[in-house]
Write a structure and sequence with these properties.
Shape: globular
Structural class: alpha/beta
Strand order of the largest sheet: 3-2-1-4-5-6
Number of strands: 6
Largest sheet: 6 strands, parallel
Helix content: 55-70%
Oligomer: single chain
Low-confidence stretches: 284-296
Number of domains: 3
Number of helices: 19
Radius of gyration: 26 Å
Mean pLDDT: 83
């Protein structure tokens, strides 16, 4: 092993270790920021290792170096601009875009390898290695194409650019998708039998259309689950591409990303009481709601609304307050105003905690990151299983833009599509204030029975404005001097 090979081995090993530490650190809010930096360093080292290996073997021409440098600069600029400009509300769409880019990268690597005949027909290469290479190529192309087109459809649907066509809401979609999968198998068999380009292009086209066909019917509350699954797919495609090019680093990194994405998918399915099969093949929860999943009634008959002043007076007399953040808080970008409100409450001796549902917002961790931006102490962020037993002893609950995750139907109404989904038991608190713009349904499209309970009052308005007015009311009441 010469110097360049030794150096590349050490760089790859360091990259794998840093990536593993980064993924582990992302499991906790407190360590997530540093973990993200570790993962970024790992990816930088991985790129450096590849370039050192190519430089040592003199496989890259001068023209190729120009393209590599240009691509690296463009990619870095795109990543930096996206990271700085993207809003928290658009994070799921951004994740979908990055998943799609990963899938396309794996697909292009596999195609480039397949279209280099000497790599698969070298007389010094054993038949078993050629077979492994071909299998890796078809897996990378198939999964990469499905990931790319599926992610683009998911991003477009979350952005509101695309809706589900009527034909894709019918059972005929399953026949179409099965037909596309069969065509993909024909392309694979053609590639194995003849090794020509025809089979590969047939595989690329059919699997790309299959990604559209599988993702297009899914909507409503199931979209975040699909994005998480596509994230897992991108890891599988990368691992397969690692076998194609003989990169142990890419194999390990892809396997870790694939496993992490699959675990996250299972967490989200559990949080919504949905099976992965029902998400992919059963249609969205929203479609059940449209068909009248809750006795056919979506109208509210007994709503109590109150002013910001009444809300402030109730908070003044409270001893324990729980905040339930949701997507509406992220849309209003009201996390900093909320933090100012809670600071006044805490200065008055009022205990404040935040109830975090696993799928609050649009993906796991969405609310944690949002509140971390406003310097909310980590110890105040309570997971659902921890905070639920405390609601009966809670004086006031402020629900800010959350909907489905606080819907009592999940426990009380067996006819509801939400039935069985773990939710926050906010209805057991003495008083519940729900801050919402209007009476629109949540992401699932289902009526929320919490709004009609006797201990619930609606405070209508934009979350940022309502919290700003509440802040002024609390200051006028002199609540900060209560302690």
């Amino acid at each position: 092993m010469d110097f360049s090979e030794t150096l590349k081995f050490l760089i790859d090993l360091s990259a794998v270790l840093l990536l593993a530490l980064g993924i582990k650190g992302l499991s906790k809010v407190r360590s997530a920021r540093e973990a993200n930096r570790l993962a970024a360093i790992a990816m930088t080292l991985a790129v450096i290792g590849v370039l050192i290996d190519a430089l040592g073997s003199a496989r890259i021409s001068v023209d190729a170096w120009i393209w590599i440098t240009l691509g690296s600069v463009i990619g870095c600029l795109f990543g930096m601009i996206t990271a700085k400009k993207v809003a928290m509300t658009a994070m799921p769409e951004t994740v979908a875009l990055f998943n799609g880019c990963g899938g396309m990268s794996s697909l292009l690597v596999a195609l480039a390898y397949a279209f280099t005949p000497s790599l698969l027909t070298d007389s010094t290469t054993s038949l078993s290695n050629i077979l492994v290479g071909k299998i890796s190529i078809v897996i990378s192309i198939f999964v990469g194409a499905v990931t790319f087109t599926g992610s683009m459809i998911a991003m477009a649907k979350l952005q509101g650019w695309l809706s589900t066509p009527g034909i894709m809401q019918r059972k005929i979609r399953h026949i179409i998708n099965i037909g596309l999968a069969f065509i993909s198998l024909i392309g694979i068999s053609t590639f194995f039998s003849s090794g020509g380009e025809t089979g590969l292009w047939l595989l690329v086209i059919s699997s790309a259309v299959l990604g559209i066909g599988v993702t297009l019917p899914i909507g409503g509350a199931d979209m975040p689950v699909v994005i998480s699954l596509l994230n897992s797919y991108s890891g599988v495609a990368a691992a397969a591409a690692g076998f194609v090019v003989g990169s142990q680093l890419l194999i390990v990194a892809g396997a870790m990303v694939g496993a992490a994405g699959l675990i996250l998918t299972q967490v989200m399915c559990k949080g919504m009481n949905r099976s992965l099969v029902s998400v992919l093949f059963g249609g969205a929860i929203a479609s059940s709601a449209i068909s009248g999943g809750q006795n056919g009634s979506n109208e509210y008959l007994n709503i109590t609304s109150c002013s910001v002043e009444e809300c402030a007076l109730t908070l003044e007399a409270a001893e324990r307050v729980v905040i339930v953040p949701g997507y509406g808080l992220a849309v209003a970008q009201a996390q900093h105003t909320l933090r100012e409100v809670t600071r006044i409450l805490e200065a008055s001796g009022i205990e404040v905690n935040y109830a975090i549902h696993p799928v609050a917002g649009r993906m796991p961790g969405h609310m944690n990151v949002l509140l971390a931006e406003a310097d909310v102490p980590y110890e105040q962020l309570k997971e659902m299983d921890v905070i639920n037993p405390d609601f009966p002893a809670t004086d006031v609950v402020l629900v800010l833009g959350a909907n489905d995750v606080v819907n009592p139907q999940a426990k009380n109404d067996p006819t509801s599509p939400l039935y069985g989904m773990p939710v926050l038991d906010v209805q057991e608190a003495r008083t519940v204030f729900v801050i919402k713009r209007g009476m629109s349904a949540g992401y699932s499209g289902i009526k929320n029975d919490l709004f009609e309970l006797s201990n619930t009052s609606m405070v209508f308005g934009d979350a940022k404005k309502v919290l700003g007015d509440l802040l002024l009311e609390l200051k006028e009441l002199g609540i900060s001097g209560k302690a």
